[in-house]
Specification:
Elements: H1 4-27, H2 34-45, H3 51-57, H4 62-74, E1 78-82, E2 88-92, H5 94-115, H6 120-134, H7 155-159
Antiparallel strand pairs: 1-2
Helix pairs in contact: 1-5, 2-5, 3-4
């Protein structure tokens, strides 16, 4: 029998896994995976950030992110530009921006369905509790089915610090 905290941790993981599968299935008709879409989102939302930081933001190792960005380059979804020193930076191509925008629609639909059982106040409270457990500063209210728009947290709001 699992202890209460193990049950809680497992419930959080099951929710994350269920959303991952649903998001991957919804993005598949666009020709991209959730991992690829997440990389597009972070490249777009964090211009000029090094690949190591993008790997962290997408929950990848540096090596895995390098492989992922190479795939996105081949698909002409991102382009590489020289950065500071030997570093390269990436930005989305017009096709990459289009796929990102189309993907946002699907992501909003899946997340809206997931959290539809919660009130706006419950969504806000859940966001607050998760931020507290993660040791993050309070962020804006989570996306709730009753709210009209989804605001993706910035690096600063997710980590409590700027790049």
């Amino acid at each position: 029998m699992l202890a209460p905290l193990e049950t809680l941790a497992l419930s959080i993981k099951r929710l994350q896994h269920r959303n991952y599968r649903a998001l991957d299935a919804r993005l598949a008709p666009l020709g991209i995976s959730l991992v690829q879409w997440s990389a597009l989102r972070e490249v777009e939302g964090n211009p000029g950030v090094c690949m190591h930081r993008l790997a962290e933001l997408t929950f990848n190792s540096d090596q895995a992110f390098g492989t992922l960005i190479a795939r996105l380059l081949r698909q002409k979804l991102v382009e590489r530009q020289p950065g500071t020193g030997r570093a390269n930076v990436h930005r989305l191509t017009p096709r990459g921006r289009t796929l990102l925008a189309e993907g946002h629609k699907h992501v909003r639909q899946v997340l809206t369905k997931t959290f539809a059982v919660l009130t706006a106040d419950e969504c806000t409270r859940l966001q607050s509790l998760v931020a507290k457990v993660l040791g993050e500063k309070e962020t804006k209210a989570a996306s709730c089915p009753l709210q009209k728009t989804y605001q993706r947290p910035t690096i600063a709001s997710r980590t409590g610090r700027a790049n």
